[in-house]
Write a structure and sequence with these properties.
Blueprint lengths: L13 H10 L3 E5 L13 H10 L4 E5 L7 H12 L3 E3 L10 H17 L19
Parallel strand pairs: 1-2, 2-3
Length: 134
């Protein structure tokens, strides 16, 4: 939690994810090549993506690969790229300097549209902490 903005890193079970998704204002997907694949091993990124899209949650994709392994995932995210909601951060490269400002801008847009139409995020928000919640 930093300057009133909190981030939840999903790394556990379905109940934890559902609660975080339900409460979220914006979903940031770190999309690796296998993202969206149904591994058949319980709750997978396939289920994460399905739930996020079913609930029509605002989303920013941080694309961490040249292309997703499943065409359906590539197609699903192509809509986001047309709206400028895709950032690229390929493996091994340093985090792009414009990544966090782009996420903050998208969050600010959602804040203005859905949460407080006459307000904006505080100007002193300069970074987002993305850490596992406890």
């Amino acid at each position: 939690r930093s300057n009133g903005i909190s981030a939840h890193l999903h790394d556990s079970g379905i109940d934890d994810f559902r609660g975080a998704l339900r409460d979220s204002k914006l979903v940031v997907v770190l999309g690796t090549q296998e993202y969206g694949t149904n591994t058949g091993l319980g709750f997978s990124t396939y289920h994460q993506l399905s739930a996020t899209m079913r609930l029509r949650k605002p989303m920013v994709l941080v694309k961490m690969c040249e292309r997703f392994s499943l065409d359906e995932v590539e197609d699903a995210f192509s809509v986001l790229s047309h709206r400028g909601e895709v950032q690229v951060w390929l493996g091994g490269a340093p985090m792009p300097a414009d990544l966090l400002p782009a996420i903050k801008q998208r969050l600010n847009e959602e804040y203005q549209v859905r949460i407080a139409p006459t307000a904006a995020l505080p100007n002193d928000v300069t970074h987002l902490d993305i850490t596992p919640s406890t």
